[in-house]
Amino acid sequence: MKRQQMFINGKWIDSVSGEAREIINPFNQDVIAIVTEGDKSDAHMAIEAARNAFDEGEWTNTPANERGYKLFKVAEKIQQQKDELARLESLDTGKTLTESIADMDDITGVFRYFAGLADKDGGEMIESPIPNSTSKVVREPVGVCSQISPWNYPLLQASWKIAPALAAGNTIVIKPSEITPLTTIKITEILEEVGFPNGVVNLVLGAGTTVGQEMAENHDVDLVSFTGGIETGRKIMNAATGNMKKIAFELGGKNPNIVFADADFETAVDQALNAVYFHAGQVCSAGSRLLVEDSIHDQFVDALVERAGKIRLGNGFDEKTESGPLISKEHRSKVEEYVEIGKDEGAKLVIGGKRPEDPELASGFFYLPTIFTECENDMRIVQEEIFGPVLTVERFKSENEVVKRANSTTYGLAGAVFTTDSRKAERVANKLRLGTVWINDFHPYFAQAPWGGYKQSGIGRELGKQGLEEYTEVKHIFENHTPEPVNWFKG
Ligand SMILES: NC(=O)c1ccc[n+]([C@@H]2O[C@H](COP(=O)([O-])OP(=O)(O)OC[C@H]3O[C@@H](n4cnc5c(N)ncnc54)[C@H](O)[C@@H]3O)[C@@H](O)[C@H]2O)c1
Ligand SMILES: C[N+](C)(C)CC=O
User: Fold this and answer.
1) Interface predicted TM-score of the whole assembly (ipTM), two decimals
2) Helix, strand, coil content of the chain in percent (nearest 5)
3) What is its pathway (predicted)?
């Protein structure tokens, strides 16, 4: 198996240490690739290349519309190669091929969106209070950007970083999760084919504790954009203080899904199922915390349990499969620990809570769709992100009560309200401390709308015009049109 390499300063290279890592298919634990394993010194080299490229200014000074054309070309190539990219993503993550194909379409949309946005901001003239002067506010690229992405949506999360950073004229060092690097390697090949000056795009491979730590610490980096878990976020935040680099964080969630008694029952049940079990619950915005109005609670839970028991687990490449495995043995153990915690806390396990018995799934990291009822607000399984196929259900009696409960975690990423009363929906949506609120739906996200979290779910926004602004500095340029001495100092 050919060892896959890193891309630094326009060249594909092995790591300095010569170490390598096996990449595993979570469906059957087959080794699907071998990649070079970088460490601090490789990250250092990549940052140096990005710094030089930024300071030389070839990309930064490329007219914005031309930067946009390049990104349109990237989008075209992603579409042309989407089947191969989707195949790689499913092999690497275990997610269904249908899901990966949808991801590739989303990623194409992200590149197209930021390609189109690249030349839309020509700065803004502001009213100067000083006579005979003009004031202009312009946005400029931040500089060298470290970009660290997670394993659950490897290329999608990377695209949310790469596209706006390049559109704004920055240089980048990207590090995918060490366990799912394959599509990020592939897109780097695409970026190379489209052609960016050496050092503008750099890819480093390796562990977070070595490569990622250097990307967060290094003083030549101006911004670190990170998507991942909250504890990693804290470490990166601390590491970034050395030179006060800017940080943009997309972290975890414990996302409330609120169902009022007047909701369309079938729709709410179906959406609740999709909210929590899509991609085996390994979604930052998974609706893993269901709050159901008391009068329909029992009926709702019965309907959910019936459908959860029918979810077809399997190989992501099998058309019948509705959900794949969890990403790794370690991650499944974490989910299993949470299920034990839930039982100890007194929640009632009504379905799942174990691995499937089907021998065909025995080599994969599978876990059955699980539901806990009789959950209380202060339980750990209600407050903490499990990131697996585990749903907690709580009852509520009033609008005020449910808003208070929904807002009671340290997270604030996303959530939903299901009701046929549009005024109630609006009132609740306005009171939820979340970066995204869906009304009568769950999960939609697209390039045009900002994505990010309140509270400890994140800092800053990706996507939308705010996603481009993250990668810019704001400069005020003031010009005096009648310069003359001010004579403040008389001597
Ligand atoms: N808010 C969002 O949009 C969003 C999207 C996807 C995933 N997530 C979150 O990501 C988490 C799951 O992803 P994960 O398990 O890959 O997260 P993780 O925090 O373990 O790893 C994410 C990335 O950080 C790197 N990393 C680890 N330690 C590091 C360190 N000390 N310094 C620098 N980098 C380091 C990893 O190598 C990886 O590339 C969940 O909490 C999920 O909610 C959030
Ligand atoms: C942001 N999103 C929903 C694509 C993936 C979260 O894990």
Assistant:
1) 0.98
2) 40, 20, 40
3) Amine and polyamine biosynthesis; betaine biosynthesis via choline pathway; betaine from betaine aldehyde: step 1/1
